[in-house]
Protein 1
Amino acid sequence: MTIPPPLHPGAAPADEAPAVSKPPSWWRRNRVALVALLVLAPLTAAAVGWQEWYQFFGFGGRPVTAVSVAQDDTAELAGAEWGPLRGGEIDDVSGLDVPEDTRLIAVAVPVDPSVEGIGCETPKLVEQATGQEWRPVRLEIGLPWSADEPETCLSEGADPYELIVPFVVPEDATGPFWVDVRPYGAGASFLRFTLEP
């Protein structure tokens, strides 16, 4: 009697166990995720670094050239006429959250754009004798935001308006001060108004 050939040529004889294949290694199973990590990690680091650099250095450069403006004068910069500055100490602070041993100084900077819309950074107050700087504190002292009294320049519209900016300074900061305003598009220049409250 003859033994019939196997039904599947090349099949292992019945007495041999089939070979067990090893599962792919961890590196092979995760190769797509690893390639994505290799590509995205440097891109993420570059994007975060660029954002931090851009926030610190502003729109292309730091302002280094002050355009000095006397308290009753005006100046033209970045397509707008600025000033004259008005300002001084606010004596009645009832209803506002102003800390003890501080003073509230408010300034108004008229802006007359000759073109539609001009942007600027929030003005800052600088004590001339010490170089100490203060940023606006509208919300911190309880003054709500108002479109009629903006703290920064209006990017839309060509109508004149005023920047109304409050600063809280220590009681011993007596001035004189500078009010620095940096319009976008002014390169390395910024406006420096003199304020003697």
Protein 2
Amino acid sequence: MKTAVTSKHTRLEIILLISSLSVAAMLLMLLLTEPEEYKANVIQESYQIKKSISPNDWDVLHKETLNLQDEWVNGSGLYKWFLSKLMPEKETEWDGVIGSTFQERLSINGQILAYQIALRITMFKYWLFVSLPLCIALIYGSINKHKANAYRFGGAKPNIVRLYIKIIWISFCIFAFFMLAPNFVGRFLPYFPFFYLVGIALLISGIIRNFHKGTS
């Protein structure tokens, strides 16, 4: 029991560390990247997505993205709070000049980041709808395999189950990094959510298929 608790704490600490590093990298990127360059990259990303789906689907996805961005930037108040906490109080005239430059950059890049995250979330929702039948079929097939294995000896593979669970934890970290980071998969970005969701379905099906009461 003590080992299990320790293992959980260790996993949580790793996730928190990766999350902290991702947020720190995001803030550094917002401070150092020129708004025009950042905006051009996000626009290019939206064009890539637009080309990969039908015009009607893009219209719906784009409107939902803009609505989400508006809610986060203007409606929630979180964006203003974020800027107020990041910027220190001015102590000298020189600090004021630097603060005002960084504040303007943060203000613009923060809105672009909000659009990027909203775009990727709506893109995930779109691909979840598209890939849902395939994911259900993969998981349902593993359930049938699990039922068949439950009544025979041998075949259980707990080590593989543990490996799949660890990979799922890592995939959640990748998802968080994907939401915050600039485009790191190039022209394959529009299809990343599809392969990600199918990969998660395969991992879940592998866990169900190999986790039963047989004796190894």
